[in-house]
Amino acid sequence: MNYSIALVPGDGIGPDVVAQATEVLDAAGDKFGHVFNYVELEAGGCAIDHTGEPLPPETLEAAKQCDALLLGAVGGPKWETLPGNLRPERALLGLRAGLGVYANLRPAALLPQLWSACPLKDEVLAADNPPGTGGFDLLIVRELTGGIYFGKRGRSDDGNSAFDTETYSKVEIERVLRIAYAAAEVRRKKLCMVDKANVLESSRLWRELTQALSREYPHIETSYMYVDNCAMQLVRSPGQFDVIVTSNLFGDILSDEASVITGSIGMLASASLGDPASAPGQKGPRGIYEPIHGSAPDIAGRDIANPLAAILSAAMMLRYSFGLETEALAIEAAVNAVLDAGLRTADIAGRGDPGGTERIVGTREMGAAVLKALLGEG
Ligand code: NAD
Fold first, then answer.
1. pLDDT of residue 284
2. Nearest residue CA, atom 7 of ligand 1?
3. Does the CB atom of residue 89 touch ligand 1 within 6 A?
4. Going by CA atoms, what residue is nearest to atom 38 of ligand 1?
5. Are 223 and 156 found together in one domain?
6. For residue 269, which of 290, 253, 241 has the smallest C-alpha distance?
7. 194, 227 contact by CB (below 8 A)
8. Separation of 76 CA from ligand 1 center, angstroms?
């Protein structure tokens, strides 16, 4: 099968890590009989330098024609003094809005090889530990385009008060819930909806709709938790969670908390999903896939950035946009294999080395090692 992928390497370490992700994708294509056609596009600081705007209209138009988008990172000190609407980060908002993605998926798993990178105590990690993991393996699905960040806001005429409004329509809630249930289907089949239904009316609507939808997914265990409790449970017993689904504001906070307990920014991937596109051959929702880290200008172009978050983002693309679960698992297994073999980029070095084999490698060597492990040559 052929897939077209919009490639937005962006700025800083973006091009360094995206190059490794495409090499691994191509190897997966060779191994499993798929062809990935890349359409390289400019967005962010590099686009400002060449065109004067962070998201040139032709970038968005071309991205819309593709089956999915793989992004590195955008931004850097060079563009930090520009006015807000001309900053590289505007490209991210423009791509999200333009491609209609409304659900942000952030896995946060503590790999056994990186156990000591986690700031939590061993006994916390041992609680409710999902089989085969080093402590926890959860996925936060955050609503991305609604709620209080997009609601009515303002100040009173006398300037003595201010307000922001949390508004959600049934359509906005249901569509993100469906994505969360679909994600739970291919994971451990547990979904926890996080809200503040003891106080907020909008949360009560989230809860009602989840209760109704859960009947369509009887094989998935649905539970409910207040957000304040969830914030505590994430550091008391993260192993209890599989998929967490929640609103924009709660998801923003909880997903940062979840990523911190993994202890390694260079390892964390993300997906932002919308409705299925009508492009021929499209298997799943249209999506933007990117590592959660930024452009790390301090280490750009020096062959030291960790490419694993970008590689794992590519695996998420195979899983969620193309329905290629076996291929996604193969890439994830290859990443595990190189960590088992003791390979570490500098950011994850010195954080657990059970076999005493730790060896520090650069971006390209790490990418090449994953590729070899994928092809069974490691
Ligand atoms: P950052 O994530 O770029 O870097 C934070 C720290 O983590 C740095 O020390 C960096 O060297 C390190 N780091 C990040 N990714 C790494 C990797 N893959 N391997 C090894 N080390 C890694 O965050 P920042 O410094 O706050 O932001 C730098 C720029 O990136 C800013 O312009 C910011 O606006 C932008 N940014 C972009 C995105 C995005 O494109 N999605 C996200 C966050 C920040």
1. 59
2. 296
3. yes
4. 294
5. yes
6. 290
7. yes
8. 9
The answer to whether position 151 is within a domain reads yes
Question: What CA–CA distances, in Å, run from 183 to 4, 210, 244, 251, 316?
Answer: 23, 15, 10, 16, 11
Residues 62, 194, single domain; the answer is: no
Residue 72 alpha carbon, nearest atom of ligand 1: 40
Q: How far is the centre of ligand 1, averaged over its atoms, from the C-alpha of 182 (Å)? A: 30
| Residue 145 shares a structural domain with residue 253 | yes
What residue type is 257 in one-letter code? E
Establish whether 252 is a catalytic residue.
yes
* 90 and 4 housed in the same domain: yes
- Of 216, 240, 261, the one marking the end of a domain is 261
Any domain includes 81: yes
pTM above 0.85, yes or no: yes
Residue 353 appears among annotated catalytic residues: no
Active site residue 149: yes
Instruction: Give pLDDT < 70 ranges for the chain.
Output: 131-134, 276-285, 351-356, 378
145, 242: one domain: yes
Give the domain range for residue 236: 119-261
* Contact call for residues 291 and 317 (beta carbons, < 8 A): no
The predicted structure's pLDDT at residue 118: 85
Is residue 293 within 6 Å of ligand 1 at its C-beta?
yes
Tally of domains in the chain: 2
Amino acid at 352: G
